[in-house]
């Protein structure tokens, strides 16, 4: 089977890129897999891609490329939804190249990895192939304008895959998609190629973009309370982003300069997690929680806010981690202190986390996708099975004309009945 992913930019760093690369590599064990990157801003991808996976960039956005001199490059996209957060990065040139690629591509399965790319699949993807939308953000994190744009397109796809059961339930309730299968399949995280944490270091780690939604200010406030009781413990925050200056000021105001460290982004993050004894997540919302799974794969228990939607479906309370109320610095500090003060319990929890996280390994996640492909093919075969009597196919472009003809015929028949 040939499988093609549509990805925003395979040359950057981000959770969607990592999980797409992971899934593509696992599927490449049994299938021909390709990743189509809408744009390319550097020579080689920042993340390692399996050599069995073909990478196809559509538009080269580097300043000296021929694509940037194409007149369509400077014109805003029309097919990509205007309410999508990345719309400003999309051009008519991408519209045209995606349409042409999908028109002539021989893949059996197409998988979009963000809302605008799912719309491309709905508009231009060949009907003979399975067309599957992935949602790496949650339903409620999309604007109401984007949700209104997406609904009619999503109804024409074969399936919508969310990363959590909770988000799948929200889609079923708030965006009814008759004829489109809505299913939850989590992201995958491979086993790190290094020994797991032994749980003895006096380090709490956190990782992610330094953005308001991650609430690292809350984590730093909580750690000020932790440091007052356990001054020999340190917090290391890995990531870059717009909140760096504000967080650095907060660390200074709280007198935590030697205790809380903003150390910048690291990729891969697993070697840093393996040096920690606890990983903390303080977010207001997480569509899935890749960081949580990455920590657990390193044998590290996680203390996380019980935010919508992912953490509660990943962490098994008091078995491999702890959940605390969203926005509660005192509860976060108390949970961290609980693990800090119980080294044997912390190490047992880390061992359990390592075991439980195996369900997120790429192989079982790839098998769930393969099962979905098979179920969608069977469902399509049942729909296309001819009924008794005369059966014929009508091209999709004929539908409006047939509808008009039927209406005219009905009117004529009514008039004939009224005629004496």
Structure commentary:
This protein has about 425 residues and is α/β, with parallel strands linked by helices. It contains 14 helices and 13 strands. A seven-stranded parallel β-sheet has the order 3-2-1-4-5-6-7, with helices on both faces. The protein is globular and about 85 Å long. The model is unreliable at about 390-395 (pLDDT under 50). Keywords: Glycosyltransferase, Transferase.
Poorly predicted sequence stretches spanning 5 or more consecutive residues: 389-394
If strands are numbered along the chain, what order do they take across the biggest sheet?
3-2-1-4-5-6-7
Structural class: alpha/beta
CATH architecture of the largest domain: 3-Layer(aba) Sandwich
The CATH class of the largest domain, by name, is: Alpha Beta
CATH topology of the largest domain: Rossmann fold
Shape: globular
Radius of gyration: 25 Å
The portion of residues assigned to helices is 25-40%
Note the total helix count. Answer: 14
Distance between the termini: 64 Å
Helices and strands, in order, run as EHEEHEHEHEHEEHEHEHEHEHEHHHH
Average pLDDT for all residues: 93
Number of domains: 2
GO molecular function, one term: glycosyltransferase activity
Pfam families: Glyco_transf_4, Glycos_transf_1
InterPro entries: Glyco_trans_1 (IPR001296), Glyco_trans_4-like_N (IPR028098)
Organism: Streptomyces gilvosporeus
